[in-house]
Amino acid sequence: MTRRLLDVDDLSVEELETVLGVAAGRVPDPGRPLDGKGVALVFEKASNRTRNSCEMAVVALGGHPVTIQSAEVGIDSRESAEDVARSLGCFHSIVCARVMAHGTLERMAGALDHAGVPVVNLLSDRAHPCQAIADVATIRQLFGPDDPTAHPVAFVGDANNVWRSLALAAAMVGIPTRVASPPGFGPTDEDVARIVGLGGEVVVTDDPREAVAGAGVVYTDVWTSMGQESERSARLAAFAGYTVDEDLVALAASDAIVLHCLPAHRGEEITAGVLEGPRSAVWEQAANRMHAMRGVFTWLAYAGLREPLDDPVTGRSIPAPGPGGADHRGHR
Ligand code: CP
Ligand code: NVA
Fold first, then answer.
1. Together in a domain, 87 and 226
2. Which atom of ligand 2 is nearest to the CA of 221?
3. Is residue 109 pLDDT above 70, yes or no?
4. Any catalytic annotation for residue 289?
5. CB 159 within 8 A of CB 186
6. Does ligand 1 come within 6 angstroms of the Cβ of 49?
7. Are residues 295 and 276 in the same domain?
8. Number of domains the chain contains
9. 324 in a domain, yes or no?
10. 259 with 304, same domain?
11. Active-site option among 135, 158, 221, 327
12. Residues of the chain with pLDDT > 90: what percent?
């Protein structure tokens, strides 16, 4: 089966380390593994960081990014998601998409499986794996990789796409997590089972103070995600008391950092004082989005070649992802 990155646990732990190693510059310069290759970036929703980090990562690796707003191709209106994906796979070595419904990505990946063209999730209602990779890269950058258990991550807010991928990534690298959400907005039993299945640790509570006490990382995200705009007033009411403010952050470890995937709503899920304050690492985190994408695309480019190559971090062979490799040529 052609490799895909629909959520972070589509990577093995070893592959995640490869991606993080490239992101952190811990491996030799991967060169231009996308030389002459196209990467399609399809957006059904708005984006600043994801679009720009992807485009610049592709350029850094020698490839050519093509950003496509969904209205241009009309996913499931002008033609089906499958036909959009298969057509893009005729021109591009990797197809990336930000979609409303996670199932759209699964359909696109299924349609491209035979072609050996990987599909990368640039955010869906369920997952945001590229953000999570940047988040772990930021935590390691600021605390070092040596003792991941020393800096638990406390997520305060909606157990949403960003939380889910973050919790999975943290589990894969040994970082314990806590999550505090109002009733009805916390993790599902399936979420918890998935984290535990990866060897992760997650404390689920509705008390932000319990989650943040002694934490090394305090993380939050918007209360109303893209696509949930009609729920905004109900969500504002439900999340009252869950703002990451100075009093809450004071309960964290003395060297704790504050992360937010951005965009932020100052005065809702986070105060301006915390976002702009000395604990905030949100701009390092944003910058790491590009390094994370260099890691993802390098991994796919190496994994996508027909002949297995040595993993730049572990030295072990990376198996080819599918019949045609990441290059669309020869997929028929
Ligand atoms: N964090 C993030 O994905 O930002 P954008 O929505 O601006 O891409
Ligand atoms: N949870 C937010 C993240 C934006 C980067 C959303 O899905 O809109």
1. no
2. 1
3. yes
4. yes
5. yes
6. yes
7. no
8. 2
9. no
10. no
11. 221
12. 87
Residue 241, judged by CB atoms within 10 A of its CB (0-12, 13-18, 19+), counts as: exposed
Q: Which domain holds residue 50?
A: 8-127+289-319
Instruction: State yes or no: pLDDT of 328 exceeds 60.
Output: no
Angstrom CA distances, 308 to 200, 299, 312, 326, stand at 30, 12, 12, 12
pLDDT of amino acid 307: 42
Which residue is associated with the tokens 């759209």?
A: 104
In a domain? residue 2: no
Q: How far is the CA of 51 from the centre of ligand 2 (A)?
A: 14
Other beta carbons less than 10 A from residue 141's beta carbon: 19
Rounded to whole angstroms, the Cα distance separating 54 from 290 reads: 6
Q: Whose CA is nearest to atom 3 of ligand 1?
A: 50
Residue 198 has pLDDT above 90, yes or no: yes
Q: Is residue 1 part of a domain?
A: no
Catalytic residue among 131, 158, 191, 285: 131
pLDDT greater at residue 322 or residue 18:
18
In whole angstroms, what separates CA 116 from the centre of its chain? 22
Shared domain check, 260 and 150: yes
Strand pairing report for 309-310 and 317-318: antiparallel
Would you state the pLDDT for residue 310?
60
